[in-house]
Amino acid sequence: MIAVLKQGTTQAQTQHLIDWLKHMNLDVHISEGQEVTILGLIGDTTRVDMELLGSLEIVESVKRVSEPYKQANRKFHPKDTVVQIGDVRIGGGHFAMIAGPCSVESEEQIIEVATAVKEAGAQILRGGAFKPRTSPYAFQGMKGKGIDLLLEAKKVTGLPIITEIMNISTLELFNDVDIIQVGARNMQNFDLLKELGKTKKPILLKRGLANTLQELLMSAEYIMSEGNENIILCERGIRTFETCTRNTLDISAVSVLHEMTHLPVVVDPSHATGKSRLVPPMAAAAAAAGADGIMVEVHNNPACALCDGAQSLTPQQFADLNQRVQRIREAIL
Ligand code: PEP
Ligand code: MN
Description:
By secondary structure, the protein is of the alpha/beta class. It has helices at 11-23, 50-55, 107-119, 144-157, 190-197, 213-224, 252-260, 269-273, 279-288, 315-332, and strands spanning 2-5, 27-32, 37-42, 59-63, 83-85, 88-90, 96-100, 124-126, 161-164, 179-182, 203-206, 231-235, 265-267, 293-297. Helix 3 runs parallel beside helix 10. The longest helix has 18 residues, at 315-332. The chain is elongated. The two termini are 34 Å apart. The structure holds phosphoenolpyruvate (PEP) and manganese (II) ion. Phosphoenolpyruvate (PEP) binds next to loops.
């Protein structure tokens, strides 16, 4: 249930109402916009008398929110959330291009790719240090050393960095990481989500391989319910019966999520398609659909990549993709 307060309500009046609601064993989440303040009532609201609440002098309207996601719900927070990472913003009309290799492989590789993607217009550098691989015999990532090399690349280029966490026991290693990624395979690792909710770090939450958009938002809710509202959602393709592509990119997820939630939505066309030649057209489609950002894999030598070479772009291909995406963004503004 949400209660929209009238303009001009004082802090003291708001607090008085919150105390009364808390007295009914409800948690109250306050969303303070420039014009309106919205109170989100979380818990068993069946005993709340909607008529009574709505009749209070300071209450503009009361609505029942039937969706199980509350804090992520756009009804509860009508304005777009803008996630800020240094000077970079994502959401609410701000668009970010995230690029870099699937995995950090060496100092030379990450510095070369970071320099090239920066030059081509990327605002954020990606690179996996802890890799969730289907086979235990495949390259598992450089782990802590990989994060050190990303930080080195950040020093050289000034680009903020994003990298994936797989286990909360490694959280300390992510102290200087700008955005923590939760990969598709961990979207419903609820203990991990809760712990990340206790940090204030921006989190990029990827949609699971076989998860609905509502499930994605319930996972975001796990992070938000612990106090972290800096969440970027990522559509990266889902499992379908189609085998021509690695996954099936659900472009409609961008528009549907924008209706359901105020959180920014980025698209990863690399993991969605698995094929480098399909990445530029799908990035273009994501931009046209109004995505708040795009994340793509770029390698200085895709043929020799230790992971996901087939879907990695060369720096030149990335530069072309970025120009195409920027042109589309200008066209749809
Ligand atoms: C990745 O981005 O490195 C990754 C492993 O992606 P996903 O979790 O979407 O498979
Ligand atoms: Mn990858």
